[in-house]
Write a structure and sequence with these properties.
Elements lengths: L1 H9 L2 H8 L3 H15 L4 E3 L4 E3 L1 H25 L7 E7 L1 H18 L3 E7 L13 E6 L7 E8 L1 E5 L1 H6 L14 E4 L6 E6 L2 E6 L5 E2 L2 H9 L4 E5 H10 L3 E3 L4 E2 L2 E7 L7 H13 L11
Parallel strand pairs: 3-4, 3-5, 8-11, 8-12
Antiparallel strand pairs: 1-2, 5-15, 6-15, 7-12, 7-13, 9-10, 9-14
Amino acid sequence: MRVFVTVVDLGSQSAAADHLELSRPVVSRYLAELEDWIGARLMHRTTRKLSLTAAGSEILPRCRQMLDLSSDMQAAVSEPDDAPRGLLRISVSTSFGQAQLADAMAAYVKRYPGVSIDMQMLDRTVNLVDERIDLAIRTSNDLDPNLIARRLTVCRSVVCATPAYLREHPAPQRVEDLSLHNCLTHSYFGKNLWHFEQDGEQVSVPVQGNISANEASTLLRATLAGAGVAMLPTYQAGVHIHSGELIRLLPAVEPRQLNVYAVYASRKHMPAALRSLVDFLVVRFAQEPEWDAGF
């Protein structure tokens, strides 16, 4: 399986042979033995390039999982102190990664120096198995039921703008007044409709503006530049509101809350490092997070 994965990653049998310090015939033999065991051809072999068959595409992520499990078993036996070890690949949105997770990961690896973290800042939903992601941090109220999730904390939002913008545009007094403002919107969340809870009832307000972006960090920068009104997560905008750079608008109205989850593919064969990281994040990001203080 290691030979098969290496051939795929490096693109040729000869490159895999050099990397694994094996002869080319041995690499070919291992591939043939794996195909015999699977009962299907895994690769199309030509003189110009290698490509996966349908069976190969199906088997590849499972081979990676088994190799990861093998490494975890070896680490568990060789390290009697039971300290978490190994590489963890984490997917997280750019805004949450920059505002909160980077500091959390610095604290985690200081506590567990045997663990390495590879953070993938991705503003899209990833396939954990296909993209070899151990843990995804997702902000949502609608998760894939096939995945395992642990709730970390709540994600609240605030509507805000700069003092400079508000000197030129009267601050909205009601949520309906937002339709009169240049609202900076997220491409995937609330592009044309912002959702609130007011007096125990759900209220939705149509909004429009001349800037949208697919991640919140860009919207924050545009808001700080005075471009308009934005709905931003408190974990990101809170520090700027406390400093006076941004003014919170409509404080009596609560934008719709979302939950922040740690999401992973399976509880089975869960590496010690992944288990310890999830436990660490549950404690780090409390049910009432520090960044919501004062809101």
